Amino acid sequence: MQQLIKTMAVVVTATGATLGAAYGMLSQQGRRARRDIVIPGWVPFRADGVYLPDGTGPRAPSDPDIAMLASAVGHSPVLRLAMLGDSLAAGLGVDQPEQLPGVVLARGLANNSGRPVQLDTLAICGCTSRRLAGQVDAALINPPHAALVMIGANDVTRRIPPWESARLLGEAVSRLRAEGTTVIVGTCPDLGTIPQIPQPLRAIAHTSSWALARLQHDAISAAGGLPVSLAQLLGRDFRTQPDILFGRDHFHPSTAGYATACSLLLPTLCSALCDGCTDDSADGWVATRGGRTAAEGSPGTTKPGSR
């Protein structure tokens, strides 16, 4: 907590007044950028259900084969994975349902754990940290084994104070952890990599998203979650390969962009939930089965310590 307060103080001192004034002067430019980015009627695919270790799915949780498997082992063998957050967690921008980040992660977890994985997507496009509590409420009706959260980009574009966003995220992680759910959070991506955002607004977006990501990292860690720094680990790739990693709106990731992110998130998910899983085996699964094309050579993530 002391580290979180210290980080907040540094961010406020370094960026608060300057960014507030800059955003005020550039509000018209920001509205124009949002108008140019939005594709009317564009919504993410849905592919929730149970994914089996052999790569098949989705199946309904009530599928007779799953019930028979549960009967054979004497308990439910199904791991439950909830996707929470904004359009990144929902997978807006992929070309096919099987390329959704939730599906890639569920199949990867099933493959590495040897257990079926039930995917429940609660993420909402356009969501900010102020609306995350409602998704947590829904998830905790039947607490999942793991929750994967990606949120923060909309907080930046809507100018929500970063310390407020981090606090709300920390509270969400704490609630999930209190019910025994493992929580992995992809922190705010670097919005400064988006070519569709004009300068100088892009430079401000870069500074703001990094400031938020640092606060999120501290809040997640303090609450017992596992942060994965998307800005730090993916920023260079998205900056140097925008034609490959951004989708058709030039704002959300493409199929290859999501696969690149999953190559970082899946090892952390497997390390937390699977006995005997390794970062290399999980990352290799994404490369061969998850559709990763532009992620070769992408930096990895540090394996989290045991909690």
What does this structure look like?
This protein is of the alpha/beta class and 307 residues long. The protein has a single domain (2-39, 50-289), classed as Rossmann fold (3-Layer(aba) Sandwich), CATH 3.40.50.1110. It is 52% helix and 9% strand. It contains 13 helices and six strands. The protein has a six-stranded mixed β-sheet, with helices on both faces. Strand 5, helix 9 and strand 6 (226-228) form a beta-alpha-beta unit. Helix 6 (132-139) runs parallel beside helix 8, helix 8 packs parallel to helix 9 (201-222) and helix 12 runs antiparallel to helix 13 (279-289). The longest helix is centred in the first third of the chain and has 24 residues, at 2-25. The radius of gyration is 19 Å and the shape is globular. It starts with a helix and ends in an 18-residue tail after the last helix. The model is unreliable at 1-18 and 287-307 (pLDDT under 50).
Number of domains: 1
**pLDDT below 50 for ≥5 consecutive residues: which ranges?**
1-18, 287-307
**How far apart are the termini?**
17 Å
Strand content: 5-15%
Radius of gyration over all CA atoms, rounded: 19 Å
- Can you summarize the main beta sheet? 6 strands, mixed
- Number of separate helices: 13
CATH class categorisation: Alpha Beta
In the CATH hierarchy, what is the architecture at level 2? Answer: 3-Layer(aba) Sandwich
- What do the pLDDT scores average to? 82
Overall structural class, as computed from helix and strand content, comes to: alpha/beta
Estimate percent helicity.
40-55%
Number of strands: 6
So what's the overall shape?
globular
Strand order of the largest sheet: 1-3-2-4-5-6
CATH superfamily: SGNH hydrolase
What name does CATH use for the topology?
A: Rossmann fold
The helix-strand sequence is HHEHEHHEHEHHEHEHHHH
